[in-house]
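Run log, item B.
One chain of 118 residues. Sequence copied directly from the ordering sheet:
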Amino acid sequence: VQLQASGGGLVQAGGSLRLSCAASDKDYAMGWFRQAPGKDREFVAGVTWDGIGKYYADPMGGRFTISRDRAKNTVYLQMDSLQPEDTATYYCAADTLVMQTASHWKYWGQGTQVTVSS
């Protein structure tokens, strides 16, 4: 499975961004992770292959929304009320199940940088 993430950028605190991840195959669970410098890669959100099951890491606090468009083989991460601590490289991943452990995921996209200024 090939994954192409896009949509990152520079935004002021309180702003929004929408990340996209185009996949070459739609029959996989998809996830978003992020990694800040010097920190481990952490789970952000995941969605099942059919788009029904959606899972979020607790720190996201309802600010992030994951969705998928199976017709376009694309998964989105809508990020609202962004804060400087959300600054990281965001990665999309694919596998058969949604798991919060990064090592579980078999396929990874190249990452897109999100920078939130205060």
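Observations after the first pass:
- The CA atoms of residues 41 and 112 lie 13 Å apart.
- The chain has a mean pLDDT of 96.
Flagged for discussion on Thursday.
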